[in-house]
């Protein structure tokens, strides 16, 4: 039996019967995912997995504590030659980072309509800073919930995207995230899922970074949980 036939056979066998009630279908889906390899993993194990998967796709990851990360990130931004950083100082994390930045790193706020400063944003802003709503360990994914202070442009336009995520917000997989955060009932208008820097191989199958977004992604995982399970 070929691989194609094997895959099709599994799909056909798993397909719901005609007329199956939605509740029964949902129960089958839940039963499948509850046996996932990371279900029951501790917070540290989820953070370990997120770090491993994201690192494998050319993401720079640091494990930090809730007190030292602003100073560490500020030093790394300065060392990388970042001259301007787009961030929301109305958030506690944004304010903490702004206070730690050296004079050579200028802060920029998204405090006016995009049309008024589009040229500056695309040409002069070196990096954007966001705080993830949560993370998905199995796929190495950050879940961003854009708002007025940090619209999705912050994570998509600057060549460097810097993201902060709390280990306590990590989920085992997408199914776990959707259920834990009640996406079906309370999903925001827009969610951005980030699984590494922008990349494409559309041209002659050559992998290139930065074609549709940031060329580089830095992720700082705050280890704020010990022993918590997904």
Summarize the structure in short.
The protein is an alpha/beta fold. Helices cover 36% and strands 20% of the residues.
Describe the structure.
The protein is α/β, with parallel strands linked by helices. The protein has one domain: Rossmann fold. Helix content is 36%, strand content 20%. It has helices at residues 3-14, 22-33, 43-55, 69-79, 92-100, 114-124, 153-156, 174-180, 183-186, and strands spanning 60-64, 84-86, 106-108, 127-131, 134-136, 141-144, 160-166, 170-171, 192-194, 199-200, 208-209, 216-222. The strands form three sheets. The chain has a six-stranded parallel β-sheet, with helices on both faces. Strands 8-5-6-9 form a four-stranded mixed β-sheet. A two-stranded antiparallel ribbon has the order 10-11. Helix 4 (69-79) packs across helix 5 (92-100). 30% of the residues are buried. The mean pLDDT is 88. Pfam families: LUD_dom. Residues 51-222 form the LUD domain. InterPro entries: FTHF_cligase-like_sf, LUD_dom, NagB/RpiA_transferase-like. This is Lactate utilization protein C.
